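Researcher: Please translate sequence to structure tokens.
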Amino acid sequence: MKTLMNSLKLSSILLTTTLLAVSSGVQEVKAQAAADNAWGRGIDFGVYCPKKYPTSTAVLVNNNVTGWKCRITNSYRSTDYGIDVGDACLKAYGYYKPHGYGNFNNPYSWFCGQPKTGSNPQYVRW
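Model: Translation complete:
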């Protein structure tokens, strides 16, 4: 009986901790469909994540280019996985490089392929 009570207390603590973590003010944004942007061909992480990690969704956890994650949520917890932008380009357009972003503070500025002429992106991986 004592073991059952300890187990129930531990379950209650874990549930409370999980609920506190979930409600801690982290605002997540669902991915929007990609469109060509000012720098090149856009990337739709909302399509990429379920292909890479079945049952996952793309979420934006920080409002910059590094904020995109593939999130898998089950009844116990959520787990975020980093996104390989080159792999996302490969799956969407058939090539890994070049890819990059136009503005670090704009999470929607990722692009695949040659940057548009005159777009002056902040980062390109050739």
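Researcher: Any highlights?
Model: The longest helix spans residues 2-22.
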